[in-house]
Amino acid sequence: MNKKEINEIKRNLDKDSGFFTINHVVTACVDAEKKVKCMTNRMNNLIPEDESELIVAYLKKILSGSIGKNLLEYHFPKDAYLEGGAQLFMNQVLRSKLTDEELVNKYIQRIIEKMEYISTYTIFVAHCTYAVISKNKNLESDMESDNNYNFIITAICPVNLRIDGLIYDEESNSIAKKDTADRIVDPPTDGFLFPLFSDRQSDINGVLYYTKNAKKPNSSIVDELLGCEYSMSGVSEKVTFHAIMNNVCGEELDLKVINTVNNKIQDIIDRSAHDTEIPTVNSRDISSILWESGISQQKLEHLPKVYETALGEKELTCANLVDKKTVLSVPGVTVNISKEGMDKVRTQTVGGKKCLVIELDDKMSVNGLETAIEENKIAEPV
After folding, report:
1. What is the pLDDT of residues 33-73, one digit of tens each?
2. What backbone torsions phi and psi does residue 344 show, to the nearest 5 degrees?
3. CB neighbours (10 Å) of residue 264?
4. Which of 94, 169, 227, 371 is most deeply packed, by most CB within 10 A?
5. Pairwise CA distance, residues 275 & 318, whole Å
6. pLDDT of residue 128
7. Which residues fall within 8 angstroms of residue 208, CB to CB, at 6 or more apart?
8. In the predicted model, is pLDDT for residue 277 greater than 70?
């Protein structure tokens, strides 16, 4: 699913949308010992409105974040449609519209058994229908639905114990200590949508997985629950990219090259801002970027083999490779430099020592205090 398709579903996942309906909603609270504490399966129109609004807010979270970081698309392996396969089972749950109690119980138990989770959590599952509006040749809506996109969206939400020390007690009209503890359902950390919404129609060959923590997604949901092959996270992509850069560029990798590479990848992202597909780079793209950044052809001859060993034919997501600021670190010192400030920074040998030189204005601030700069004065150790 691309940005446009995800946004279309998210935008219409709303009670005020005339093209969207939540049919059935399943909720289940599971403790740390994998025991179901409570479970409901209701038609959405029978759920109190304030409760339904909160559930919808959690479900919409599953379509939030950056593609390639928080939102990852996975395709089922070829044998997933066989008896016992995840794809076949997911399709059965979808077709049941969550009205088959036995199948719903199996679905909840499958989540509990397959997913690794360290605390009490709540599962929200909704069967939804989106009336897909056709587009004419001018990409204008015809306001007539060609087909219905039926989907199941599942959110995994942690349940945390909240003990607020002091509250306002209306009965006594005073500030008093709270005597009870509440278990609050927090926004989802994980979730998934099935089937995919691709080319404005259903695609049962894949699933969209959401993770709140892009640095540490729950791989058990992808590997065990959904039966898909887990691919590297956004953080892993950056680590791999850095390893490729180090292996290929070696001693030619300096501050200027790193900054130029970062800017060129950011340029690719900026040029693709209005595209529906997320921008990616492959071995050939990286070779061109490094060449334009000053890396010698001799070094670049090693890139194809290094890239293939690390990634095979996989492309890297541009958004996972760039940094908004440059961080320079040596033992005991870390300097954060914004994109606008890079022209004031350079490395230079001074008195036989390698130094980081920062061009200063007439004044600078230290710990938030504006400080004058005096020439030929060596600061005393603090």
Report:
1. 999 999 999 999 999 999 999 999 999 999 998 888 899 99
2. -95, 0
3. 18
4. 227
5. 14
6. 95
7. 1, 6, 63, 71, 72, 73, 74, 192, 193, 194, 196
8. yes
